[in-house]
């Protein structure tokens, strides 16, 4: 696991080292590009005083609320639409195609009209963005199940439930996880944008605060944390996928 986690981090570390060197040698204006070490110290100070942890937890709770709700609805619905329920699929698919094209930033303002600027609005827009990649990838995963496997399973006397558990769900799992990774990334970074437009807490609010205070080290520290969290979420889902879909990765 450690080798897998660090194998693609070397280029990033090299870039950070070059950044530190350029800033320390004052090849650029340090007011615009402070040394990486000072940014790291700023992050540590924010963590030590509890400021950063509070905003991180608030943002993650909002993102996870919409993300988990999307999973609970999109995965079962995708399994139904991708399966033998053609009438449901034909009725809903055109509506879903239209819904997926809705601009989330415009939608956020519409949601605010109905729900206000509170937590429900933020969770709702995250849910809306997350549901489509999960839904469409789940449908695609089910549709791409090997027909010969299904025929063989029924020929051996397996029930529909057994076929679903032993063949359809495992075959669709990689596509479902692809949808989860896409949605997780969308949910987190869209939330930051939503918090920048209307929030008094969270990482998006922290971004606005750092811009207004023009504390350059704080600006970079916030950007570092947001990027690191996004990468961590993606790595975590990949790690879970490799542990769950073991037949896909040969582990």
Overall description:
The protein has two domains: 1-33; 36-244, MetI-like fold (Orthogonal Bundle). 83% of the residues lie in helices and 0% in strands. It has twelve helices and no strands. It has helices at 2-6, 10-24, 36-48, 51-82, 86-100, 104-115, 119-143, 147-155, 160-197, 203-213, 216-244, 246-249. The protein is globular, with a radius of gyration of 22 Å.
Write the layout of secondary structure elements.
Elements: H1 2-6, H2 10-24, H3 36-48, H4 51-82, H5 86-100, H6 104-115, H7 119-143, H8 147-155, H9 160-197, H10 203-213, H11 216-244, H12 246-249
Which key features would you list for this structure?
single chain, 251 residues, mainly alpha, MetI-like fold, 2 domains, globular
Tell me briefly what this model is:
The chain has 251 residues and is an all-alpha fold. The protein has helices at 2-6, 10-24, 36-48, 51-82, 86-100, 104-115, 119-143, 147-155, 160-197, 203-213, 216-244, 246-249. It is globular and about 75 Å long.
How far apart the termini lie comes to 12 Å
**Largest sheet composition:** none
Averaged pLDDT, please? 82
How many strand units? 0
From the 3D structure, determine the CATH topology of the largest domain.
Answer: MetI-like fold
Number of helices: 12
């Amino acid at each position: 696991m450690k080798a897998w986690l660090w194998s693609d981090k070397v280029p990033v570390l090299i870039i950070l080292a070059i950044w530190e060197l350029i800033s320390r040698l004052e090849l650029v204006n340090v007011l615009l590009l402070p040394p990486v070490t000072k940014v790291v110290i700023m992050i540590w100070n924010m963590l030590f005083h509890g400021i950063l942890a509070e905003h991180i937890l608030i943002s993650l709770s909002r993102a996870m609320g919409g993300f988990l709700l999307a999973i609970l609805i999109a995965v079962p619905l995708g399994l139904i639409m991708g399966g033998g329920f053609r009438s449901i699929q034909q009725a809903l698919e055109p509506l879903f195609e239209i819904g997926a094209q809705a601009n989330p930033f415009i939608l956020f303002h519409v949601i605010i009209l109905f729900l206000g600027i509170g937590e429900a609005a933020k969770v709702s827009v995250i849910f809306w963005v997350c549901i489509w990649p999960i839904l469409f990838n789940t449908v695609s995963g089910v549709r791409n199940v090997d027909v010969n496997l299904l025929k063989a399973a029924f020929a051996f006397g397996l029930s529909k439930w057994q076929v679903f558990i032993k063949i359809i769900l495992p075959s669709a799992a990689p596509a479902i996880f692809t949808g989860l990774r896409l949605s997780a990334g969308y949910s987190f970074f869209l939330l930051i944008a939503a918090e920048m437009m209307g929030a008094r807490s969270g990482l998006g609010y922290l971004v606005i605060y750092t811009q207004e205070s023009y504390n350059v080290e704080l600006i970079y520290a916030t950007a570092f944390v947001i990027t690191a969290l996004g990468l961590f979420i993606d790595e975590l889902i990949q790690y879970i996928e490799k542990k769950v879909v073991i037949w896909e990765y040969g582990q």
